Structures are given as C-alpha cells and as structure tokens.
Amino acid sequence: MARLKGINLDQLTEEFNVLENKITELNSKNILLEAMLEEANRNVKIHETKEKSVTEERNALLATVNKLQLAVQKQCDLRVANDTLRSDMAILKQQRQRTAEDGEAEIQRLLSEMEAHKESHKRELETVIQECRKQVEKAHKEGYTQLQAKEVEVKELLAQKDLELEEMNRKLEEQEKRQQNELLELKIEMKESSQMPAGQITIASPKLHHSLYSLTDSSDAEQEGDEADGPPCLTPLQKLTMDMHKDDRIIKELVIGRRVGFYKVRGEIGHGTFSRVKLAFHALTKDKVALKILDKTRFDPQAQRLLSREVSNMNSLQHPNVIRLYEVVETSSRLYLVLEYAGGGDLHNKICNEGKLSDNICKITFSQILSAIKYMHNNNIIHRDLKAENVLFTSSGCIKVADFGFSKQISNRNDALDTFCGSPPYAAPELFKDEYYLGPPVDVWAMGVLLFFMVTGTMPFRADTMGKLRRCVIQGSYSIPPWVPGPCQRLIRGILKADPMERYAVDQMLGCDWLLPVEFPWSLASLEPASPLQSLLDSDSRDLVEEEETEEVTCLLEKLGITSAHLRNNQLNDSRSPVTGVYRILLHRVQNRRGCDSLPVVRGMVRDPKREGLRAYRGLRHTSKLCVLS
Predict the structure, then answer these.
(1) Domain span at residue 389?
(2) Dihedral sign computed on CA atoms, order 256, 259, 260, 265
C-alpha cells in the first residue's frame, strides 16, 4: 500500500508540473495577448487620429473646392458683365459720334445762359449779404440785451447774498449784545456776591451760543469785557466762511465750478466712462486731494446703486494701501467724491512707459496689493475690478488700490455672485462661463494677471477678439518666460488655476517662498493672542495710539477754528459733512507722520525657508475649501 501511495504521489507531481507548465504558457500567451491588445489599441488611436486628420483635410478640401467654384462663378459673371460693358461702350461711342456735331452749338448756348445766371446770382448774393449783416447786427443787439439781463440777474444774486450776509451779521451783533449783557449781569452778580457772606456766594456760568448760520462757534464767554470791545480776531474757518458769502471773486468761482465747498479746483488729472478726476486743494489745510466728478443727470437706478455701494464700502475701509474717501459734496447736478491724491501715476502707464519691474520692486508692489486685498476680504468686501489702471502710486512709491465702483460687500465668503464685472483681460474663467461665482477667488485671479504683467511687461492672455480671449482664459493657455525666478513662477501657476477651488488663497500667497524676504512696517493680519492678558495689552496699545492721534488731530482742528462743539454737532462718520472732510484729511496727515505709508523692505537672504514659511503662516487666518479658520 505504501508503494502504491508513492506511485500516486509521483504521478500527481508530474501532473502538477505539467499543469504548472501549461499555466506558464498561458500566462506568457496572456501577456502576449495583452501586448497585442495594447498594440491594437494604439493602432486604433492612430487610425482614429489619422481618420480625424483625413476628415479635417477632406473638409478643408471641400471648403477649398467650394471657394474655387464660387471664384469660377464670379469669373464667369465678370466675363458676362465685361462683354455687356463692351457692347454698351460701342453703343455709347456711336452715340457720342452722332452728338459731337450738335455739342458745340449746345455748349455755346449753355455758356451764354451761364453768364446770364452768373449775373443774376451775383445780384442775389449781394442781397443775401445785406440781409445777413442786418441779422448779425440784430443778433448782436439781442445777445447784448441777454448779457445785460444776465448781469442784472448776477447782481440780484449778489444783492441777495449781501442781504443774507447783513442778516447774519445783524444776528451775530444781537448775539454779541446778549453776551455782553450777560457778562455785565455776571459782573454785577459777582460784585453783589462779594458783599455777601462766604456761604451765600453763587456764581452763574455764562451760556455758550452756537451759530446756526456758519460753522463757527460764537462763544466769547472766556473774553474779558475790555477785550470784547476790540476788533474780533477771526479764525481761518470764520474767515473762509465769511469770504464765501462776501468775496465776489470766491462767489464767482463757486458759481462757475472753480470751487466746490472748501476745495479749490484745478486741472484735470484723469477721466473714466462716467466721471472726470481733477486736482484740488483744501482751502483750510492746503492738502492736495483728487476730486472725482460725476454727472447726476446721467444716473440710472443701477448707477445710483453702484455709487451708493462705492461710497459705503470706501467709508468702511481704512488701510495704508487703499485709497481714502475724505468727503462727499453734492450739488443739484453733480456729485463730488473727495479722494486721497496719489501723484505717482498708475501701474499700467508705469509699465507701458518704463517696461517690466525689477524683482525687488515687483515684490514690494505686489505685497502691498496683497495686503490691501487681504484687508478688504477680511472686511467681506470684494473689489471685482482689480487691474493695473486701478493700482496707483503716491509720490513716495506707496501703492493705493482705487476705483470701488464695482465693489460688493458680502455677508460671508461663500456667498454666490452672478454679475460680470471688471476688465475682460483680468476676468477669471468662472466669469466667462456665465455661472455663479465666489468673490475672493475672482480677486485672486486678477492679482495673478497683475503679477504676470509686472514681472514680464506683457499680459498672460492676449487675443484679437472677445471670443478668442474667452477661450484662452477658460483653457488657461499661457506661458511664463524662463527668466522669471522659480518661486515667482510657482506663485503665478498657483494663482492662475482654472478651478477656483484649487486656486491659491490669500494666506497661501502671503506665505509663499517668493514673498518671504518682504518685511512690512505694519502688521498684515491681526495675530492670534497667546493669552487673554496679551489680548488686553494689545487692545490697550491700540487704544493708546488712537487716543494720541485723536489728540493731535484735535489740536490741529482748534488751530483752524473747529472746536469740540463742531465735532459734537457733526457726526464724523458722515462723509457729507465738511467737518468730516477736514478731520479725515488731518487724521491721514498725522498717520502719515507716524509711518502709515511706509514702504515694505526686502531682506537680502532668507536663512531657513521652511522655518520662515511656518513663521509667516502663524497668526494668519487660513482659508480651506469649506470654511474659514480664525
């Protein structure tokens, strides 16, 4: 039995080996079949490609044949027309020969008639000239009459202003008399109280009167009686207010638009589709401002909503790299936005005139734009019209992001928007798809286009027509020159991604390798406090700085004649108040003296990029695909 079992085992072994060999052969055949299948698939793809190319060539040949047929048809038509013209020319030649003999007589007759008509026209022309002279003399007399009427109207207006000024002076004199009487009564009471016992002395405080007819404070309670009789010492604000009501030259400038409120208007420095921008000076502070002039007669309801949104958003923004709104002045036909003046031109003209920016200048410029956009996004405001023309330079080189006409305030960053805004070369792919889109990634895409424009001097997406530009942007077809630094290339590729969910967030851009050497004179983001005590200390420090700035501005305002009473009677968050305009201009001046508009600096070397990158990320608000961590 044992021997039989051994024989069976050997047979099984042999059969197993045979099966194993067959399996090996099958595997090799399977591999061969797979290779053949792959080769067949490749051949199919090659065949499909060739078939596609043959189809395209056939279509091209058909189109060429059609064009040739059309050309042949046109040539045949031209030949027929040519033959017709030749026959017509022969007929005309025969007719000309027949009429040549009669032509000379007809010409002589026409010449005689022309001479007769010439004489008659000459007489008619003299008559018309005499009538025109009479009409010109009549129009001159009527224009002179209208000019006299206009002069009478202006004189009446000036007389009315003089009457108003006299009425105001009369009220001021009555007010001064009342104050003098109160002062005399106070002196009498003080004399009487000096004769009373010490426990019965009562001192009445004088009342302060605030004029409703000007911005001046008419309180003279601190003056002595002998000083009240002398000539009044006017503050700059009182003198300006009086000149605006009394000086004929200033009144004329107000009428013709050379003055707007407290601002002296000068030449035009820019223009847009719906507005003009002029240089102006504040009559009290002597600061330069930019006056954006809008024609109210051209406003439709949508334009009014956009303007209201622009003013509201600019009122809520105060950042070193965002253009400031000082004041809003409105007349019956125009609206004036008094803005911060940036006298260094815009980024588009700078690159077009001087060429691409150097690497360090690009870092300094782009980091300031990035700082402004981060601040706006932290305040839930989307710009939606970021382009080189809206990036301005001050005389010191500080960047100012301007033009908030298309800006939008959202409740949170996941709000979907549907309005196509901005310039097409800077528009993100989702805008061209006519779909809902998120606001922050649209601004990020525009910053990528700006960065490409700064480092290369050209636009990443260029096309002759809007349709071609749309295809280029949606496909993301652009090429970065090889001489652009590697970290900058990685940043551009991270920003210019067609999918907004894969696009870099602002915080990722702040922590990229290319911007690590940049140091800001101020904090880009509010760092997370390590403890409640640290938070309290930071809050106290900010309050102390704001209190010092407010005290300095208050001193400057008092020198101009704007007292605490004016500040109480005018809400400083109301941009339509002239007191708000003066306050914001002086506050900006004080902040500039404290280094508000200081430029970032670029260090020479980064010792440890990984550690520096981690340090750059600490304290920033990081954005994920679904939520915002703060």
Answers:
(1) 347-519
(2) positive
